[in-house]
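G., the chain you wanted modeled:
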Amino acid sequence: MSTRILLGLSIFALLLIATAYAADAVKLDGINCVVQGTKPAKAETGVDYKGGKVYFCCMNCPKAFAADTPKFAAKANYQLAATKQAKQVKCPLSGEDIDASQKVKVGAVEVNFCCDMCKGKTEAEKDQVAFLFNDKTFDKAFKVGK
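Predicted structure as tokens:
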């Protein structure tokens, strides 16, 4: 009888651990490699970046990322936002409080602005990821963490 109870408690503990892990896991559906850009990112290739993790398609891409991080920073910052590891707290252009009615969808990320002028500047940009997720604008507008 005590073996059954011990086995049941062990299974219950494993289920709790698995549930907690799944709740913290980053969703990578539709997320591409920071370096390759068009290849799907894989969970086993994640590396620490700005308090979160960025993901790649293979084990060679983290090496390329480490060798020239500034080159890939905008894509890495975008991936942090797309995987919901980074939350927007301010306007990326002005650093002011955001108005939820002033927004632009950039791929999988909805970006809010303080005013129509900042929104308009973004809509006019050809490469919105580079414009909004470079280190300067990202650090001004987004916070990584829970």
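The radius of gyration is 19 Å.

Shout if anything looks off.
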